[in-house]
Amino acid sequence: MDTNRFRVRSRSGLDLDAFDPRDTGTSRGGKKKGLKALRTLTEELVELQRVLWAQHEHRLLVVLQGMDTAGKDGTIRHVFGPMNPQGVRVTSFKVPTPIELDHDYLWRIHPAVPGRGEIGIFNRSHYEDVLVVRVHGLIPEDRWRKRYRHIVEFERMLADEGVTILKFFLNISKEEQKARLQARLDNPSKNWKFSSADLSERKLWPLYREAYAEALARTSTRHAPWYVVPSDRKWYRNLVVATVVRDTLASLGMKYPEPSEDLEGIVVE
Ligand code: AMP
Ligand code: MG
C-alpha cells in the first residue's frame, strides 16, 4: 500500500474535505483481504519491535489525534496490542490537572517521550493545546498561535536527538460519529465510554475541523509528518496505521545487538 497520499504536505493550508473518511483504497477483496494483510503486517510489526527493544538504540513516538469515537483506543489495541508490552508505553492526555496548568503546556509531554528501544504512544497529545484550547477559547489567540512554532521546534529537537515521530489524525465523518455515539448509548458494554460532553463537543464539529486543518498544515514536517487516516472503516484505519509504522520501522535498518562476549566454544553444562 502506498501511504504517501495520506501524508500532509502543504505547510500553507489543508483542505480536510479532500480526504474521504470512507476511503478503503482501490484493491478488490476489500475487508476480507484487508484483515488478512493486517495479520501479516502484525507479525512483521511484532518482529520489528522485538529488534527495536533488543537493540536499545532507536525510539519511536506515535501521536494519535481525532474527534471523540475516531478510534484512538481501538488503533492502540489492534496495531500495538500484539507487541511486547515491556517496550510500549501509552500515555493518555486528559484535561490538565491544576499542577499541569501551573506549568507550560509541554511540561507534561516531555517525560512521556519514549526512551531508547521504546515505542511511545500518545493518546491525545500537545496538539490538544492548539485544538480544544482554541475551540473553547481557553487562552487568547495570540498565545495558542505561537504554539505551532513551539511544537515544530520541540519535535525538531526530539528528531535531532534521535526520536522518530509519526502523527496520525484519525479522520471520521460526522455521520459515523453519530452512529458510534449512538452505539455507546445502546450497547451496555459501551455505556461507560459515553460522556454527555461528547455531545457538546460534537456541536463544535466545524470549529474542530478548522482547528485540525490549520494545526496539521502548520506542523506536518519532514521530521514529524502528519497522516490523515480514513477511519470510518476500522479495518482500513488499522491497516493504514500499521503500514506506516511497519514501513518506518523497517527503514531504520535495525539489527540485533552483537553478543557482549565471544560465544564460540562456550558450553552450557
Ligand atoms: P478522552 O480522550 O475521552 O479520555 O477525553 C479526554 C479529554 O481531555 C478530551 O475532551 C480532551 O479534549 C481533554 N484534553 C486533553 N488535553 C487537553 C488540554 N491540553 N486542554 C484541555 N483539555 C484537554
Ligand atoms: Mg471520550
pLDDT < 50 runs, ≥5 residues: none
Which CATH architecture? 3-Layer(aba) Sandwich
CATH class placement? Alpha Beta
Domain count: the total is: 1
What molecules are bound to this protein?
Answer: adenosine monophosphate, magnesium ion
Helix content: 40-55%
Shape: globular
Q: What can you tell me about this protein's structure?
A:
The protein has 269 residues and is an alpha/beta fold. The chain has one domain: P-loop containing nucleotide triphosphate hydrolases (Rossmann fold, 3-Layer(aba) Sandwich). The protein has nine helices and five strands. Helix 3 links the parallel strand 2 and strand 3. Helix 1 runs parallel beside helix 9. The protein is globular, with a radius of gyration of 20 Å. The protein starts with 29 loop residues before the first helix and ends in a 19-residue tail after the last helix. It binds adenosine monophosphate and magnesium ion. Magnesium ion binds next to loops.
Topology, please?
Layout: H1 30-55, E1 59-66, H2 72-80, E2 88-92, H3 98-101, E3 119-123, H4 132-135, H5 141-160, E4 163-171, H6 174-186, H7 196-203, H8 205-219, E5 226-230, H9 234-250
Parallel strand pairs: 1-3, 1-4, 2-3, 4-5
Helix pairs in contact: 1-9, 2-9
Magnesium ion binds near residues 195 and 198.
